[in-house]
Design brief:
With 577 residues, the protein is α+β, with helices and mostly antiparallel strands. The protein is built from 22 helices and 15 strands.
């Protein structure tokens, strides 16, 4: 690496915020962040957006942040982004009726290495407690979040008004990418505001259900919530049905995914022409989704359509019982049944009934809002991504870089210089690219507390040896989405390459951002390495009516690929048969 055994983009620590965690960060930042993604999107969009969210709902003041104008609120260690553990615990300390421990449980994986909360005098603030109390009252009473609808319209307009990128100058491409950052800040502020407050409603439901003696009721009551991140799956299902019904299109899928879209575009068959037109519309509407989609380097479906086509192929081979609409209806019906049961049990207790109804409305509004808010933000990020990729394509043509995504090895400050002195960056980019690839072999420490770890302190995945579970083993994780399903385990490490996954299998995945959602549709159940309560995998699994167990550490290594397993999403267990 370097003589200091660190990545050049790694952050420094400040005394005010000593503790940082991969909890909930591993779900949305599963890979090392690119230098351009870090310096442009994280530092200029997401960090000020998180600052503004904390201020807007009353958790902190502007001058409580370190370097408030451009705060570093998502630290990077070993190339991997971390969430601000200390800062979120301050929120828990100041929030009426909450605690740092409750915040940990709501948002971060439960790990032994997480240090206990350390109170500091500056954490005490009656002023912020009052402001947070007002925000909590709003969360438990509002039936809508209109700011998210406005952000959705804004993000869509940026896509609709996208200029012909191939016709822009280099300077204009860079300017367009940078022009997206204020919109990232705006949409991410709302995403963090909604996300930080989303646990209030679910917490109220959980308290009522626990009081009734059956905590599992809470999971079933959160099923069937319509979320934006599931919308691509519904559209893909229709494309899969079209492909299934067309002999010509099915024949091209059977011939292999390599070159599939080119073959379909060249076909004169009417059904193939219609399929291509529908798929192109799909890419306009949903092509911004990607694995690791907060990072500019990641390939969105628009950039690499074969990723979406692989998921559509799975749906093409699925029967109607796997339809997202069918599963959603069944999930809603189960939710309605449980809802009637709970209401009947608390009918004689007006206070409990009132808290339950308020919590139910809040949970539905804010869990759906959380998914919409993230969708809005990543749609904006994709506009910056495609502009920079066009600039990268030109640098490849000019012989400056070998592949388009190497442009993301630059920092924002270097974009202007490479326009005028491209040759001076050839060696720098090549060296960074080589170093960057080595970061993928490191498993970042889960918590950083007061001291920046060196790369030598992190585990190399290539040196890691995990013993696989044997028949009869019962693995315990976090109950994510209710129901029980038995099927063949299929370990998939890359959503873009789901080879081996067949309809009815149980998807075993390292983490799941929205790009993974289409793989949920044909699956019997989902098991995830990471994910706290309210994580993306849980929310979408409930919407689609699929059993889900999250936070089984190293599930992708412990569960044998091909083993028959039973997933109990209500109990949070996985049994190896």
């Amino acid at each position: 690496m370097s003589e200091h055994n660190t990545w050049f983009g790694d952050s420094t620590l400040e005394e005010r915020f000593p503790a940082w965690t991969r909890g909930n960060a591993a779900d949305v930042f599963p890979e090392p962040i690119s230098p351009l993604g870090q310096s442009l999107v994280i530092r200029q969009g997401m960090c000020p957006g998180l600052r503004d969210a904390y201020i807007s709902y009353g958790a902190m003041d502007y001058d409580e942040f370190v370097e408030p104008y451009r705060p570093d609120l998502f630290k990077v260690f070993g190339g991997y982004p971390y969430n601000p553990l200390t800062m979120t615990r301050v929120l828990g300390w100041r929030m009426p009726g909450a605690s740092p421990e409750m915040i940990d449980k709501a948002f971060f994986d439960d790990r032994d290495e997480v240090p206990p909360y350390e109170h500091q005098p500056w954490h005490d603030s009656p002023k912020h407690e009052a402001r947070l109390g007002a925000s909590m009252a709003w969360v438990m009473s509002t039936d809508s979040i209109p700011e998210l609808d406005a952000d959705k319209a804004l993000a869509q307009s940026l896509r609709d008004q996208r200029p012909n990128l191939a016709g822009l100058t280099d300077a204009a491409l860079i300017a367009r990418a940078r022009a997206m950052m204020p919109y990232v800040q705006q949409t991410f502020e709302n995403a963090m505001r909604v996300s930080s407050l989303s646990a209030l409603g679910t917490g109220a439901i959980a308290a009522v259900c626990e009081g009734l003696g059956d905590p599992t009721l809470a999971i079933r009551l959160l099923a069937g919530i319509d979320v934006d991140s599931a919308a691509p799956s519904h559209a893909m299902w229709q494309l899969g049905r079209s492909a299934h019904e067309s002999p010509a299109v099915s024949a091209e899928f059977e011939a292999g995914l390599d070159g599939l879209l080119d073959r379909l575009r060249a076909s004169a068959d009417a059904s193939a022409v219609a399929f291509v037109a529908d798929f192109d519309r799909f890419l306009v509407d949903h092509g911004f989704r990607a694995q690791n989609e907060y990072d500019l380097r990641s390939e969105s479906w628009e950039v690499s359509p074969h990723i979406a086509l692989a998921a559509i192929n799975l749906m093409r081979k699925s029967d109607e019982s796997k339809s997202p609409a069918v599963r959603h209806e069944a999930s809603v019906a189960e939710c309605d049944r449980v809802l009637a049961e709970v209401r009947s049990k608390i009918a004689g207790d007006p206070e409990t009934a009132g808290m339950f109804e308020a919590g139910l409305q809040s949970a539905h509004v804010f869990l759906a809002g959380r998914e919409r808010a993230k969708t809005n933000c990543v749609r904006v990020i994709n506009e910056a991504r495609v502009a920079l990729r066009e600039f990268g394509r030109r640098l490849v043509e000019r012989g400056v870089i070998e592949r388009v995504d190497q442009i993301f090895m630059l920092t924002d400050a270097e974009l202007d210089q490479i326009r005028f002195e491209p040759d001076s960056f050839k060696d720098v980019i090549a060296q960074r690219w080589a170093q960057y690839q080595t970061l993928f072999d490191y498993e970042p420490v889960f918590v950083v507390n007061g001291r920046v770890p060196s790369l030598s302190e992190m585990t190399r995945r290539s040196d890691k040896h995990t013993t696989q579970a044997v028949a009869g083993t019962v693995l315990k994780g976090a109950a994510g989405s209710g129901g029980v399903a038995t099927g063949r385990a299929r370990v998939v490490l890359d959503a873009a390459d789901p080879q081996g996954l067949e309809p009815g299998d149980v998807l075993i995945a390292p983490q799941t951002d929205p790009s993974w959602v289409p793989l949920f549709v044909p699956a019997a159940a989902v098991v995830i390495n990471v994910g706290a309560q309210g994580s993306h995998a849980m929310i979408v699994s409930r919407e689609l009516g699929i059993p889900c167990v999250a936070s089984i550490a190293d599930a992708t290594e412990i569960i044998p690929d091909g083993a028959m397993i039973t997933v109990d999403g209500t109990a949070g267990t996985v049994t190896i048969h």
